[in-house]
Amino acid sequence: MISKLPRWVWAGAWALAFIAGMVNVVGLLGFKHEAITHLTGNTSLLAGALATLNLSAVLHFALLIGSFVAGAVISGFVIQDTALRLGRRYGAALLLVSLLLFVSVPLLGYESAYGMYTAACAIGLQNAMVSTYSGTVVRTSHVSGMFTDLGIFLGHALRGLPVDARRLRLCFLVISGFLCGGVAGTFAFQAFAYSALLFPASLTAVVSIAYGLYRIRKDRTEPVRGDAV
């Protein structure tokens, strides 16, 4: 499946991993000091809250996880299928991600947990969108799977087995994007506090516009059937 992905998808995957890295580090540095994109840790915190009967924490983590899932639901509703086609509604999905991130900025500025929920919804939407167009090959909101793949490839190499070079490059691509986003997000948060999220929100809008321009150029030579967003 990776061999069928066009080059613009690879560039988009790095950009979206960068955005997720920025958003997550802002959550970790913010007033709650909690991850926004990592459902594994948040599920563990939910389990701890359930065990201690901390109902306010149970509600918070349930809403945080539910917001991420809601974003994935929106992606599934908007994009509809797993076929990668220009004309599918990736541009609209990206604009929704951008809007949600813009909305989260003033909410977080007031130290409202709703800012975390809107940001989680945005990342859930973009992660599901990437999973849809890549056939679940790419995840941009977390890198556990990518590090796992790197370990597998190293084990294969030690045994003299063939290594999927394109998958290896994809792992480095997503990991580097998420890492660079975290570094940039840290500097941005130190300088601008929650307004740091204006950068990933704006970048998402730029990616959406770039996709739209790419699609328009392709439409001039290869008319696309299907929906037009």
Automatic annotation (TrEMBL):
Entry superkingdom: Bacteria
Alphabetized UniProt keyword annotations: Membrane, Transmembrane, Transmembrane helix
Transmembrane parts of this sequence: 12-31, 51-78, 90-110, 141-158, 170-189, 195-214
InterPro entries: DUF1275
Name this polypeptide is given: YoaK family protein
Lineage: Bacteria, Pseudomonadati, Pseudomonadota, Gammaproteobacteria, Lysobacterales
